[in-house]
Specification:
25% of the residues lie in helices and 20% in strands. By secondary structure, the protein is an alpha/beta fold. The protein has one domain: Phosphoglycerate mutase-like (Rossmann fold). Strands 3-2-4-1-5-6 form a six-stranded mixed beta sheet, sandwiched between helices. The longest helix has 14 residues.
Length: 183
């Protein structure tokens, strides 16, 4: 893989809402499944399409761009993949499931090698590891992702002169109750 990153932008999201003892997971077919998203999680996954791949004529925030590459962690949980399924369907692109928890460095190398915009859906316990691998440090991005936050996008933009990524956060503000603050 080349030393210079090719990905112009990397977007990192936590998988959407999961079962919490009150809300059950639901498979795409509608049956109860603790490894799947909750109804609210499916709503957020669908709403992400409006944010990341809006219909023609609808403007998106300048911080975002439609991804050309999707990554989701593979594990016994289906949530990371399910969180980006609607975006994949809208854009007609596949989801790379080659990496799991503990593979963050390899994931980031693969993501940086993509030419264009990359979206990664991951588990909250490992978000800092992904961010640190993208940034090359452990002080720019928050080192903990709160258990109750599903509503933020971490944005890494390539500075082509320095061949390094900058870091920003964007509250999604897609569903009722989403916070307007960053992490």
């Amino acid at each position: 893989m080349p030393d210079t990153p090719r990905a112009s932008k990397i977007l990192l999201i936590r998988h959407t809402e999961k079962p919490d003892g009150t809300n059950t997971g639901v498979s795409p077919a509608g049956s109860a499944d603790e490894k799947s998203l909750t109804v609210r999680g499916w709503q957020r996954a669908g709403a992400l399409v409006c944010l990341l791949a809006p219909p023609e004529g609808v403007t998106r925030t300048q911080a975002l761009a439609a991804p050309g590459f999707l990554f989701a962690s593979h594990s016994s949980s289906k949530r990371p993949e399910q969180s980006v399924l609607p975006v994949a369907g809208k854009l007609g692109i596949g989801i790379n499931l080659d990496f799991g928890k503990g593979d963050e460095d390899r994931l980031v190398l693969a993501a940086k090698n993509c030419g264009g915009v990359v979206l990664i859906s991951w588990q909250h316990e490992y978000m800092a590891a992904v961010a640190n691998a993208i940034l090359g440090d452990k002080h720019t991005a928050p080192q903990e992702w709160p258990k109750d936050r599903f509503d933020v996008i971490w944005i890494f933009d390539l500075d082509p002169v320095r061949a390094r990524y900058t870091f920003a956060q964007l509250p999604q503000r897609l569903l009722a109750g989403d916070l307007a603050s960053s992490i």
